[in-house]
Write a structure and sequence with these properties.
604 residues, eight-stranded mixed sheet, flat, membrane, transmembrane, transmembrane helix
């Protein structure tokens, strides 16, 4: 099947185009995974065949609408239409592995991730917030233990056919031809396997290659990849960006281990995940930055595991989809277990076209706006034409303003002459007053019109100069200078002592707080203060910030000494302290008053 979505100023319209698969094939990305990745992109047909289709029960357990083994893509689309009035979801793993089966699975021989400690890269506050986040899993809806292992066994036995599938879509809109590649994973195991944020059944991710016309062919101009930590222009890289790795006409993307979030550079990326309650607190406090309100996690996008794409052991099996693909269009439910997690992170996602609430994804409906390209001209010729159009518009406006200024200037001069003549006689001065008022208003309007003409003349000169030669090229990463990109962990900066301390320090601090709350006496307060001092000292030694700690302690000691001395002085000789304060206040008041008295008044 071949499909294409075409659009200009209106939403893209889906029309068949025989060249869609050829375009997708020509630029299909290479995905380089991390060693230890359990789930690779797979076809949705075999996955759906292993699933049951369920609807949320009104007050109790889910209602099974279609049992596992009786479902296919055609029936999934039909059920989505038939039960559109009910929240639907698939269920891939049922039941999870038992504890005995889980222990046996963990002993199986498979590639493992040699992880770096994310706590070594962040401070104490972030580690404490992470404790609260972990505890919240006890009361939130979360994926049951053993589900990941069961999903991996099922996927390895029934879904892994040696190749990998992507679902390609071509959108033609506003001068761009967008090749969208949608990847489906049977599971997101970021939390269970790689100590990340969440687990959920099913996962949809996308990479988009934006083509522009050049000399009769389509040339890649931009690449964008879905990511949890960014949106808009931060999602994309220009084709000639040195930081974008390519293999011929195929961009290379590094999916995060378990999360499958796209990265353009390999490494261990520290991403800040801001939970909805913390985001609301930050908004109430009027803070723009998420610093201190987000939990740091590591996305392992090393690229040292299996690679999928042209020239590699695993190659792509493309399937072209679009607005008229029934299972894409008609099934709005979740593609896996609905845990009813209040924060949403442990719930399965909806399909490539929809969000969890049934709204159409922006990446599907508006691929240009999704990557911040709606304002970027597709070609230099389009940009030059836009500048020429603006220059002509400015020129026409300048002509109008010139005529308006000439006429207005003549009228205000006439008003001034009338006001002067009428003000010369007592009996006609009453007629001069409204003319003077109108003159003030008209003069201000004339000044604003002259200022507008001056600005437009400067703009036209700049446009003319810009159009006199080749247009100035921006640096490939110019659009990234306004965003904060994820930090990449340098494992050489974090010695074993820091990694070990980062792992045990937070439990120690929580234990100390617990002891203090159980026995809040003077002795326990003193002991806790000593504990905090030792804690800060070890933290400073581990992070090689001893000099900073000593400086902070010295300044704190000076402040405490000064405040204590003042308090003691007030308690011991309060009359003397009060008298000195009153004398100083009197001297300051006298100086201020004398300065005001001696200042020479300006002559009228």
């Amino acid at each position: 099947m071949s499909a294409s979505d075409v659009g200009t100023s209106a939403p893209p319209v889906h029309t068949p185009a025989p060249s869609d698969e050829a375009l997708l094939r020509a630029h299909e990305p290479v995905l380089r995974f991390t060693a230890g990745e359990l789930f690779l992109p797979t076809a949705v047909g075999p996955y759906v065949a292993r699933c049951s289709l369920r609807a949320d029960g009104p007050d109790g357990p889910d209602e099974v609408l279609v049992p596992a083994g009786a479902l296919d893509l055609q029936e999934l689309a039909a059920a989505g239409t038939r039960h559109r009035d009910r929240p639907l979801h698939l269920r891939f793993v049922d039941p999870p592995l038992t504890r005995t089966e889980l222990r046996a699975w963990r002993r199986e021989d498979r590639p493992r991730l040699r992880s770096a400690s994310r706590f070594a890269a962040v401070g104490v506050l972030a580690r404490l917030v992470d404790v609260l986040f972990r505890l919240s899993l006890l009361v939130r809806g979360s994926v049951p233990g053993g589900t990941v292992a069961a999903a991996e066994r099922t996927a390895r036995a029934h879904l892994d056919a040696g190749g990998c599938t992507y679902y390609g879509r071509v959108v033609r809109d506003a001068g761009y031809t967008v090749c969208q590649y949608w990847y489906f994973y049977a599971f997101n195991d970021w939390r269970s396997t790689f100590h990340g944020v969440n687990d959920h059944e099913a996962d949809w991710e996308t990479v988009a290659v934006y083509l522009v016309p050049e000399r009769g062919r389509w040339r890649p101009a931009w690449v964008a990849a879905s990511s949890h930590d960014h949106s808009g222009e931060a999602l994309r890289r220009r084709w000639d960006d040195p930081g974008l790795r390519r293999e011929g006409d195929h961009p290379v993307v590094f999916p995060g281990a378990g999360s499958h979030s796209g990265a353009f550079t390999p490494g261990d990326h520290v991403v800040a995940v801001e939970l909805p309650p913390l985001r609301r607190l930050r908004d109430r406090l009027g803070r723009r930055s998420a610093a201190g309100f987000a939990i740091p996690f590591v996305d392992y996008a090393r690229g040292d595991g299996p690679a999928v794409g042209p020239g590699h052991d695993r190659t792509w099996q493309p399937e072209v989809v679009g607005e008229d693909t029934p299972w894409v269009r008609d099934f709005r439910g979740l593609w896996g277990l609905d845990t009813r997690d209040a924060l949403g992170g442990e719930r399965a996602p909806a399909g490539p076209r929809y969000e969890r609430d049934g709204a159409v994804r922006r990446s599907w409906a508006d691929p240009l706006g999704w990557a911040g390209l709606a304002t970027v001209p597709a070609t230099p010729e389009e940009e030059r034409a836009l500048l020429c159009s603006r220059r002509d518009e400015v020129t026409a406006r300048l002509q109008v303003l010139g005529a308006r200024i000439a006429g207005e200037r003549e009228e205000v001069r006439g008003l001034r002459a009338q006001a002067r003549a009428l003000a010369a006689y007592a009996d006609t001065d009453r007629w001069a007053r409204p003319r003077r008022e109108e003159l003030g208003r008209r003069e201000a309007g004339l000044a604003a019109t002259v200022a507008e003409r001056t600005e437009l003349a400067e703009e036209r000169a700049a446009l003319t100069e810009a159009l006199s030669g080749p247009l100035r090229h921006e640096a490939p990463d110019a659009h990234l200078r306004r965003v904060h990109l994820p930090d990449v962990i340098d494992t050489h900066r974090h010695p074993a002592f820091l990694r070990g301390w980062a792992a045990v320090s937070t439990p120690l601090l929580v234990l100390g707080i617990g002891v203090l709350l159980t026995r809040p006496t003077a002795a326990s307060l003193t002991g806790f203060a000593t504990f905090l001092l030792v804690f800060a000292g070890v933290e400073a030694v581990a992070r090689r910030r001893v000099r900073l700690l000593l400086t902070v302690l010295a300044v704190a000691a000076l402040w405490v000494s000064a405040v204590a001395s003042l308090v003691l002085a007030v308690l011991g000789a309060w009359r003397t302290v009060l008298a000195v304060a009153l004398v100083l206040a009197a001297v300051v008041l006298l100086v201020v008053n004398l300065r005001e008295l001696l200042v020479r008044r300006p002559r009228r």
